[in-house]
Specification:
By secondary structure, the protein is mainly α. The protein is 79% helix and 0% strand. It has a domain at 16-123: Methane Monooxygenase Hydroxylase, Chain G, domain 1, CATH 1.20.58. It has helices at 16-47, 52-80, 87-112, 119-156. The chain is elongated.
């Protein structure tokens, strides 16, 4: 199985709405990987089989998340520039979230490595990571929806 990091458009090539749309599109792809990873975790837990496929699928998820966070960090200023009064606040929150996510990601990568966890501990670690990531994605999307509402309200007032 070949794991390649996705390639994304450059931030300077996107409008704020295109940047937000691309982030949301990547969230859809991450959710697909989350579901696939969880399915492998369940299958391995049920069968008691080889953990190799779970390690591979988890690594693909973790690589995709790392690429996604790097992309977000590049486009975040463009994605939030139209949010009157809240762009800086949302950006700081996302930066804090990314610091926390990176710490969690480092631990998750260590857990699937050769000196990492085994058996049910590994399965539980991957599944906990998936749950946490889903919550983080939902939180980010809520922030983008609030940003879109703010932009619409400001625009309707002539701002």
């Amino acid at each position: 199985m070949e794991n390649r990091k996705p390639e994304y458009r450059k931030a300077e090539e996107m409008s704020s709405s295109e940047a937000r749309d691309e982030v949301l599109s990547q969230h859809v792809k991450l959710r697909v990987l989350l579901a696939e990873t969880d399915a492998v975790a369940k299958r391995v837990a049920f069968s008691g089989g080889d953990l190799g496929p779970l390690r591979e699928k988890a690594q693909a998820l973790y690589d995709a998340l790392a690429a996604h966070m790097s992309f977000e960090e590049q486009v975040l200023p463009a994605a939030l520039r139209d949010v009157i009064g809240w762009g800086d606040v949302i950006q700081r929150k996302m930066e804090e979230d990314h610091r926390r996510q990176r710490e969690t990601l480092v631990a998750a990568i260590a857990a699937i490595g050769p000196a990492g966890l085994a058996g049910m501990a590994l399965i539980d670690s991957v599944r906990r990571f998936a749950i946490t990531l889903e919550v983080d994605i939902a939180s980010e999307e809520k922030g983008f929806l609030e940003a879109d509402v703010d932009a619409i309200v400001s625009d309707s007032r002539g701002g």
